[in-house]
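Bumping with the actual sequence this time:
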Amino acid sequence: MLARLSPALVLIGGSVFALAALGGALYTISRPYYAPITPDAAPPLEIYCAAAMVKVADTIGKEYETAYGQKVILHSGKSQELLVRMEASKEGDLFLPADESFIRLADKKSLVSDVKNVASMHAVLVVHPKVAKEIKTWSDFIALGSNIGVASPGAAISKLTKQELQGRGLWDSLETAKPIHVGDVNGIGDKLLLSSIDVGITWDALANVLVERKPDLKIVKLKELDSVKARVQIAVVKTTTQRDHALRFIAFLRAKDKGAVHLKKAGYSDVDEAEAMDDQRELTIYAGSMLRPGLQKALDEFEKREKVRITRVYNGCGLLVSQMQVSDVPDLYFACDTSFMDKVREKFEEPSNVTTNQLMIVVPKGNPKEILKLTDLGQKGLRVGVGHEHQCALGQLTQETFIRTGVFAKVVNNIVARSPTGDFLVAQLLAGSLDVVVAYRTNITPYPNRLDGIPITGVPCAAPAQPIAVAKSSKYPELSRRLMEYLQTEESKERFEKLGFGWDAKSVKN
């Protein structure tokens, strides 16, 4: 393809790429991989956990605690009872019932958010060895009468079994047999191990555990129970005060190298494997230079929380876009303006506006040249500095503002400096080599005693929004989305506003 381009275009393209590569190298900041951290300062994670999930959730919880130092507390019981407790207490962090129907109920009541699939379970019979006759049919099963054990109505397995059997016209026959109700689904296993019942309806994953403990127990799959299936989901409780940690646990529970391993081993089917959470995870974020002060602390915190390394590349968005158009794409891109996001839009998921900034006419303290409006930048002999229109959003927006307000022809001859970032312009103004610059409000916030700024108003492009998006090619898309969300928290809002940014995120999360 390059062979079809003119030598001049190739030279220009090569120069832009070289500048981009150099700029990226100058503004790239990496962090070392984090070793296992000390105990998390956050309070324990409290999970409303269905009895059917307790054993595997406890195993995963202990591994999570070892990895991140945050204690996990399980509140176990029947799914229906857990839902009632959660609604009444308005406490807790996560809801892990045995079937998605309880998640739907909780969602209707606006109790949960961030729902994720985990795995599936199927109903089977577990038969005690004292049952001499082989159970092959529904009639064989019903014939055992009061020696049958079933979970109480509030348990997910009883709810789903009743729904399916009623549809087949078989529920009445089971009720007529007068089975023993034994509390939650784990009670079925306890009764079988104690020989208190001859047969029980339970989930296949729990049946496997029972057979491990007592090998002479027998698992029987009846065709009448084939359609009794529970899809396990987990959700964040909306009243949680540590949503970020709750999301981290969900990621751990579903990670193909963490929780998913235990779920498969325990016999759960259709395990919804998510991306790995190994200690070698690395994200790369490209961000406009002006965003750096607002990002640094949040990125440091996220690194520590998730045990991940984040490589940060800060530069003018024109240079960053040039890099992405000819080279690798980062996991996230935090652009200086929506127009630069649009140039690489096909490479990213749906962007979200986070902050806004304001173009300012920036002058030394006291405004010695008495510059009050854009037309004043055309004063004879004035040394004006602007952003480079091909290398950064600041330059492109400044040029567009000059053109839209009709001052471009008056000002262009006074422009003696074009820089890739607003910080460079402010540095030259402070050094005395420029009389006035056009920069962002955030560029002058650190110098209240040395600089004055006059906002440029009345032109939409003079107050740009800064969007962020996750790359479609990211190796860790869920982790990247969590970082994107982390940058829109209340704490992040406070940091950016302190630096002079406006806030444009649609919602702010605690």
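The tokens above came from a reply further down the thread. The first strand starts at residue 28 and ends at 29.
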